[in-house]
Amino acid sequence: MRNFIDIANEGVRLEEGITVIEQLLLECYLNPGISTKELARKALIPIPTAAAVKRELIKVGAIVQDKGARCTVKGKAWVEEQWGYLGIHRSLYQELMAFENGIHSDLHHVLADLREIMKYRPQADTRIDQSKCTPETSLRRAVLCLKQQFLIGKQIMCVGDDDLVSVSIGLLLQALFPNGRHSKTAVHVVDMDERFLHYIHDVAQQKRLPIQCIYHDLREPLPANLHGKFDCFFTDPPYTLQGMSLFVSRGISALRKRKGLPIFLSFAHKSPDYMFTMQREFLRMGLTMSATLPRFNEYEGAEIIANRSQMIILKTTERTIPDCSGTFEDALYTGEVRQTMRTYKCKQCGNKITVGCQCDIATIEQLKHRGCHSCGNDTFDFMNKKTL
Questions:
Q1: For residue 66, what are the contacts with CB-CB under 8 A and spacing of at least 6?
Q2: Which DSSP letter does residue 318 get?
Q3: To 10 degrees, the CA torsion angle through 151, 153, 159, 164?
Q4: Domains and CATH numbers, the chain
Q5: Separation CA 217–CA 219 (nearest Å)
Q6: Average pLDDT of 174-193?
Q7: What are 232-254's pLDDT values in tens digits?
């Protein structure tokens, strides 16, 4: 079957990326007879751009103009066979896409299953900054992925998954495809905690969920066979700048080389100065902030962050690259950062600066915010660390 998307993309070459073309074709499938104005509204693009994409999809035979835009037989087959939409519970899908707050009543049975599953998950290991999110939060993350249109038919990675987002995604898919025929979505979990990997594997086997578990210490680069294969990823990293940058970097290396792919980053609420430093890290990695959802995540017993954290949705660009591509040797977890003295070298002038709880500058976050006292540069190479 012809690849309608690639052929249409050759005709328009959108700055927004190929994902917009995919979204417009999907809207024509889900909402036959949709207007050009509504297509533009759905994809957040100008009406002339939506009209240009529509023309290209008509040229390649994916859609037809008939009291609005709708898929042809070939276009419908493409969406159902290549993306896996055959057999979808269409009314539930549309209700979830429009639902704003909380958990939709039609997912209460999913939430009940998830609560029972999460009741027996391993205990959180605070040494590696683990904390237990609630079942509602885990399911909300899966629904968020759906609403971003990066769940059905996608390859998804969880960079660490003590929150069992992979399980929530699997259970949500079963609700959306009650006939059990969906087979296009796959979730890969990468984690160094074998307790969670074994637990997720056992649940996936029992519930027949499309999850594959991979043991890996994220201080080391991802295996080559995971590079460039995924459409999005979730991560709830250690709440240090190093941890955030490392986990996001590993996820980036796993993503396809396409702009507009989402990264679902859960992170503690921080001060404006700290968020400014984080955003500079995003810019260095060639990422844009698409949305920030305050208080999106709720945790059990995580009083140090007031039991809540924000969800940040990042998007890839043509300039997206991981900040860390080799072995990571710096302090990573909160406990490590507090108990070490670390030496960094300014990338611009070579000045060496010591950071730690007994120094004038306590963290790399503060150092990047203040900059090198010799030249003002705000990028540094890690050299070594000393445990106190």
A1: 33
A2: T
A3: 60
A4: 4-82 (1.10.10.10), 90-316 (3.40.50.150), 339-387 (2.20.28)
A5: 5
A6: 92
A7: 999 999 888 899 999 999 999 99
